[in-house]
Specification:
214 residues, alpha+beta, Alpha-Beta Plaits, two-stranded antiparallel ribbon, 14% strand, globular, disordered N terminus
Length: 214
């Protein structure tokens, strides 16, 4: 059987499709069975709004809240791989800040929303790797730029002055200022969080595989 060679255009069009869904979940979106298998979720989980998809330059990052137990091992693995120690506050992926009341924080109807004080669904969250990233455009010393290999928006610590402008500019407050180094840090798409997840609630799927499953 002849194989179909994927072109860069396939990859870019696929990414653009999912960029529209970043931060919105997959509820109400028509998804093929093969893509559901690839994402490690069921149709019921997707329709319930429990599956989030983040379109990064190199891959689709899938966070399945139905599988997340709130163990925070992804946060520990992140800081162990990037900083050499376990420091959840500095993790580039966040579960802890959503654990009690979900991503929206305390609300009047919190018993019906995510978190320990609600429905017990946790929300892993991380950098969306925005194309026109607010953190990148507001940096006064131009310390944030796309990595030439991965395309991830990364911070040059030699340039960073720790002013915190990127933290304030990000709609999701993803960058963090390290209190010890006084430098900003954020997700670089290293995959440590995915590798350490014991329930496979996190998955990184190359765009070529996503396109083939559509």
């Amino acid at each position: 059987m002849a194989t179909i060679k994927k072109t860069p255009l396939d990859r870019e069009l696929t990414r653009r499709q999912f960029m529209k869904l970043t931060g919105k979940g997959l509820a109400g979106v028509a998804i093929s069975g093969s893509l559901l298998d690839l994402m490690g979720c069921t149709l019921a989980q997707a329709e319930a709004g429990l599956v989030d998809a983040i379109a990064t330059p190199d891959f689709l990052l899938v966070a399945n809240r139905a599988k997340c137990t709130g163990c925070q091992r992804c946060e520990a693995n992140c800081t162990l791989a990037n900083d050499g120690d376990v420091h959840p506050y500095m993790a580039r992926i966040r579960v802890r800040q959503n654990m009690y009341f979900g991503a929206d924080g305390p609300q009047d109807d919190h018993p019906y929303k995510d978190g320990i004080y609600g429905n017990w669904f946790f929300a892993p969250d991380t950098c969306k790797q925005c194309g026109d990233a607010p953190c990148m455009s507001i940096c006064p010393v131009k310390a944030i730029a796309p990595d030439p290999v991965t395309g991830a928006r990364v911070i040059d610590e030699e340039k960073c002055v720790g002013c915190g402008a990127c933290v304030q500019a990000c709609p999701w407050n993803m960058p963090r200022i390290d209190v010890e180094t006084r430098k900003s840090t954020k997700c670089i798409n290293c995959g440590a969080c995915v590798a350490g997840c014991p329930t496979s609630a996190l998955r990184m799927i190359p765009w070529e595989d996503v396109a083939a499953a559509l």
